[in-house]
Amino acid sequence: MKRALISVSNKCGLNEFAKGLHALGYEIISTGGTKRALDEAGIPTIGISEVTKFPEIMDGRVKTLHPAVPGALLCVRDNLYPFKETLQKEGVSHAEIIENIDIGGPSMLRSAAKNYRFIPVLCDPNDYEAVLHELQEQGETTLATRELLGAKVFRHTARYDAMIADYLTKQTQTKFPESITLTFDKVQDLRYGENPHQQAAFYQNMNPQYSLANAKQLHGKELSYNNIQDGNAALEILKDFEGQYAAVGLKHMNPCGVGVGDTIEAAWDKAYAADPVSIFGGIVAMNGTVEASLAEKLAAIFLEIIIAPAFSEEALAIL
User: Fold this and answer.
1) How far apart are CA 267 and CA 260, in angstroms?
2) Are 240 and 285 within 8 A, CB to CB?
3) Which of 22, 114, 270, 297 is flagged as catalytic?
4) Percent of all residues in the chain with a pLDDT value above 70, rounded to a whole number
5) SS3 (DSSP) at 187
6) Does the annotation mark 197 as catalytic?
7) Which of 54, 74, 153, 236 has its CA 20 to 30 A from that of 292?
8) Which ranges constitute the DSSP H helices of the chain?
9) Has 216 been annotated as catalytic?
């Protein structure tokens, strides 16, 4: 009998994936909210307690940590408790953050990923379609696919543990811990790296501040590696001018000019006057709203990027 264990916090694409497995003859074992969602969708499920012969305890905090689960895994899909999303909630308490540290999820994922030669384990809804296609076409997943999925699981759980460690390190005010593990999420692939023959991708950390990773691109072509580096460098310079209007002109990681003034337009006038030649094809960053009159000045020059906290509708139309 083919069985799939499904227990997710992120239910994106869940019903379609589970229906596909059911159509292929899989019995679906599920837990808690995932089981309720599948039941409501009319997809037959088996409760985890029917398999373990042991009830969920501590309000569902312990349900899959039982020898019957990791000892007989055939196909695992488990999302970890949403720790990152909990951290980013406004006004969240320390107790709620600790409650959202998952224990059973990482244990199941790691158990199945270690046994990837025989078990396809999914930790990303983006993999549902490809895995379902292989099952439909071949009756099983390929070893290459299972190995890729297993590697993704260990990246996923490492990222999860790194976020928890970072939070608790800051909570305990540990300045220089014995080790630091950094985790970054992929934002996008880049057309090329610093030079055209190099490959590159753009990653951001969990909570980027004063970073181009926080910016919303309003129009124009996809940013390049050098665009991102230069844009971020311009923002780093602006950090030194909190509390006053400032504008920065920058090209190839070197500032062409920096100006401060009573208005953001006056600040730009000074930054431009510092070197009106080198700014051609460069990047401008400023810490005030761009209005129409300033936009007219900026539009008269060829610029790769203009960064500002806000633009008026008239300024956007001009640019």
Assistant:
1) 4
2) no
3) 114
4) 90
5) strand
6) no
7) 236
8) 14-23, 32-40, 48-52, 83-87, 94-99, 104-114, 128-138, 143-171, 225-238, 264-274, 292-299, 313-318
9) no
